Amino acid sequence: MFARMTTVRIADSPRAHEPGSVDESLEMWRRSVAEVKRKRQGFVEAFVLLDREANRVRTVTLWESDEDMRSVEAEGLLQTLTHEFADAITEAPVVEHFEVGMRLQRE
């Protein structure tokens, strides 16, 4: 199993310390990305981690194979989504790839 971790910093706004800024980005991700990922071959699951204090969002997606994970990037989907989110983020997303060494779940 493989994982992609993408980190973005959300643009400051007058409401930066209120829930709106990060929540709006989360809703955009839900509408734009979640459906696409669910339909992708090899997609296992995703987590969206929020750091409201730092206006930072980190997504972790799990994939059955490295090839499945990287096919999304090869098709330009990440670049398209970065363009869609351009007004909401302050810098280019940081994308990292990992092999999952262990996965623990509740029995």
Give your account of this protein's structure.
The structure is a single chain. With 107 residues, this protein is an alpha+beta fold. It has one domain (2-99): Alpha-Beta Plaits (2-Layer Sandwich). Helices cover 34% and strands 29% of the residues. The chain has three helices and four strands, in the order E-H-E-E-H-H-E. It has helices at 20-38, 66-74, 77-84, and strands spanning 2-9, 43-51, 56-63, 94-99. Strands 2-3-1-4 form a four-stranded antiparallel β-sheet. It is globular, with a radius of gyration of 14 Å.
Please outline the helices and strands.
Blueprint: E1 2-9, H1 20-38, E2 43-51, E3 56-63, H2 66-74, H3 77-84, E4 94-99
Antiparallel strand pairs: 1-3, 1-4, 2-3
Q: How are the strands of the largest sheet arranged?
A: 2-3-1-4
Stretches with pLDDT under 50, minimum 5 residues: 14-20
* Share of β-strand residues: 25-35%
How would a crystallographer describe the biggest sheet? 4 strands, antiparallel
CATH architecture descriptor: 2-Layer Sandwich
Total domains: 1
Order of helices and strands: EHEEHHE
Helix content: 25-40%
Q: Which structural class do you get from the secondary structure elements?
A: alpha+beta
- Summed over residues and divided by their number, the pLDDT gives a mean of 81
Quote the CATH topology. Answer: Alpha-Beta Plaits
User: Total helix count?
Assistant: 3
- Using the CA coordinates, give the radius of gyration: 14 Å
